[in-house]
Automatic annotation (TrEMBL):
Similarity section: Belongs to the oxidase-dependent Fe transporter (OFeT) (TC 9.A.10.1) family.
Domain of life: Bacteria
Name used for this protein in its record: Cytochrome C
Transmembrane segments: 344-372, 384-408, 414-434, 454-472, 492-511, 523-544, 564-587
Length: 600
């Protein structure tokens, strides 16, 4: 165990060293992107020579990176050549920016602090370490500054600051600038360097007089003042730079804290603890507010779920764990920013669509069961099916009332997963029963008698459970989604749910009517297919639920993801679904052969 921990720590140290190289290269490229045009415009030969030195350093770092850096070397040499020839900025700046972004994306570099910086500490550390050259106000008017050539950056210069982001400043503080008085301060704690970088962006801003919009720390770290002004308005920049959002005690804040814990555990070599912390962040941080978030931004929820999955896989493989967790933190930050409530009609439409979406698969199953009972002259047992799905609606209503206390986080995920897996077994039971009778229409009188007797004796409970479980999972999910919508507009959620329920009942009537008009053999075959497809879909959701709970491992594969159909790009869930579908098909084929051999 000790040797394993040592191995993890050595791997982590190697990864950190590689990340430092890539951050340095990206920092130099971004410096070139922001400064080359000005150096060329002023025809300052000293500045141009400095730019050439930066381009030479980029090439040198990539050459030292070996095969892993070879994909970027030719592009870097092109930049080196055009800067050496003092080509127009239009030929240099875009190349530098594009290469920097390619490296940051490919190497999954973390370009933001792990938490919102402590601004008071940033001010204190800036004045203690940086003010000697840059001045307390950022004017770079000190005696030391006057003696430096080139002079230090003036943080009050709007044109200069227009090209900078906190991430660029953080890189400069971490690695320094060769050939200048800007030394590397990589011995300072990472949090301190980030806090200093963020403080620098407050120096030229007026006092904040209002609460700014909530923006993720990643966006603040990688945006210039100009970009923030363009997105949020000029009057918001000062407060965005000065007033860091306070951490709240809500669910997403818990997710952020647990993700921080995961990073700390991984750095110590506790891989299992880090993976479990990521799982806990999902279950205790995202799951409780997922219905509300899904109602407001379903695409963001999907991105969060996929990012959490990648983080758990990274914990297992040991590759890019820190970067993947930071990506989750960025997305959680976006979720924390999504505080704008929806209006009545937006909630109404969302609630209606949720009712239809969640209820469709259940309607098909219930409609098939009712149609079979009709054909089998066992309509007296239709009340059992109705009792099953009506009971599930009551169950959903209870879930809506007590969701916060009993059906949040891991409890909700466990309940949905268990219901899905139980439903798979019951649906297969129903499908195989239908399949066994799909080819004996010439013995219908005998079959009706046997069916009636079977239903009357031991299958009544099965019918009830099939109907209940088929609707129960969707009922639970619908209740939780509606609870999230009700936070924005209670009336919109209620009336949207009523409209969706009416449409759903109409769909049930339609399915029953179509089922009644089908020939017996066609009905049996169609119902069997519907039940098996639903079982395969629920199996995918059940396996995925167990993976989200950390019970089963994850093995991502390149494949489509369709949550509503229970299709996920994971080897184990797809394999389970394939085995189930194949098994059902083989059983059906064998059943047909056996039936064909029976004497008439």
């Amino acid at each position: 165990m000790r040797s394993m921990s040592l191995m993890v720590l050595l791997c982590a140290s190697s990864a950190l060293a590689d990340d430092a190289r890539w951050h340095r290269v990206v920092g130099l490229l971004e410096y070139l992107e922001g400064d080359y045009a000005n150096a060329l415009a002023t025809n300052d030969q000293a500045e141009l020579e400095e730019q050439r030195g930066f381009a030479d350093e980029v090439v040198k770092q990539l050459e030292a990176g070996g095969a892993d850096a070879s994909a970027y070397l030719e592009r870097a040499k092109t930049i080196q050549a055009v800067i050496g020839e003092a080509k127009p900025a239009a030929e240099v700046t875009p190349r530098c920016g594009a290469l920097a972004r390619s490296i940051a994306k490919d190497k999954q570099l973390v370009q933001a602090p792990r938490r919102y910086p402590a601004m008071d500490d940033g001010k204190k550390q800036y004045e203690a370490v940086c003010s000697t050259c840059h001045g307390v106000t950022g004017a770079a008017d000190t005696e030391v500054a006057k003696a430096l050539d080139p002079p230090p950056a003036k943080f009050l210069d709007a044109e200069r600051m227009a090209t900078l982001t906190p991430y660029k400043v953080f890189n400069t503080t971490s690695f320094g600038i060769p050939g200048t008085g800007m030394a590397a301060f990589d011995t300072l704690p990472e949090d301190t360097r980030w806090a200093q970088a963020f403080h620098i962006f407050t120096l030229r801003q007026p006092a904040c007089d209002h609460v700014p919009p909530r923006v993720s720390v990643a966006e603040l770290a990688t945006s210039t003042d100009v970009q923030l002004a363009a997105k949020y308005g000029e009057n918001e920049v000062a407060c965005l730079r000065r007033a860091m959002p306070r951490e709240d005690g809500g669910s997403l804040a818990i997710a952020q804290k647990l993700l921080d814990d995961a990073l700390a555990l991984y750095a110590k070599g506790d891989v299992d603890g880090a993976r479990q912390a990521v799982v806990d962040a999902y279950l205790n941080g995202l799951e409780p507010v997922e219905p509300m978030l899904r109602a407001r931004d379903e695409r963001l929820v999907m991105q969060l779920e996929q990012a959490f999955t990648r983080a758990r896989v990274a914990a297992q493989s040991g590759e890019h764990f820190e970067a993947e967790v930071m990506e989750v933190k960025v997305l959680v930050g976006k979720a924390q920013s999504a505080t704008n409530a929806s209006g009545f009609w937006a909630v109404f439409v969302a609630a209606l669509l949720i009712l239809l979406r969640e209820g469709f698969e259940a309607v098909v199953v219930v409609g098939a069961l009712l149609a079979v009972l009709k054909k089998m002259n066992a309509t007296q047992l239709a009340r059992v099916v109705h009792a099953g799905w009506v009971s599930s609606l009551v169950f959903g209503g209870v879930a809506f009332a007590v969701a916060h206390q009993f059906f949040a986080g891991a409890n909700r995920e466990w309940l949905e997963t268990i219901v899905a897996l139980v439903a798979v077994g019951l649906l297969l039971y129903a499908a195989l029963w239908l399949n066994a009778r799909a080819n004996i229409s010439k013995h219908m009188t005998e079959v009706r008698g046997e069916m009636t007797q079977a239903l009357a004796s031991g299958s009544t409970l099965s019918l009830f459970l099939i109907a209940f479980s088929s609707v129960g999972r969707e009922s639970l999910e619908t209740a939780l989604f509606l609870q999230g919508l009700a936070a924005d507009s209670f009336d919109g959620a209620v009336w949207g749910a009523v409209a969706g329920l009416v449409a759903l009942l109409g769909l049930i009537v339609m399915v029953r009517t179509v089922g009644f008009k089908l020939p017996m053999q066609t009905l049996f075959k169609a119902s069997t297919i519907a039940l098996v497809v639903t079982a395969v879909m629920l199996l995918g959701k059940g396996v995925h639920g167990l993976q989200e709970l950390g019970v089963l491992p994850i093995r991502p594969v390149p494949f489509v993801r369709v949550d509503a159909l229970g299709v996920f790009p994971d080897l184990w869930s797809l394999l389970a679904q394939l085995l189930l579908a194949t098994g059902a098909f083989v059983f059906s084929r064998n059943e047909k052969k056996l039936t064909a051999r029976k004497p008439a």
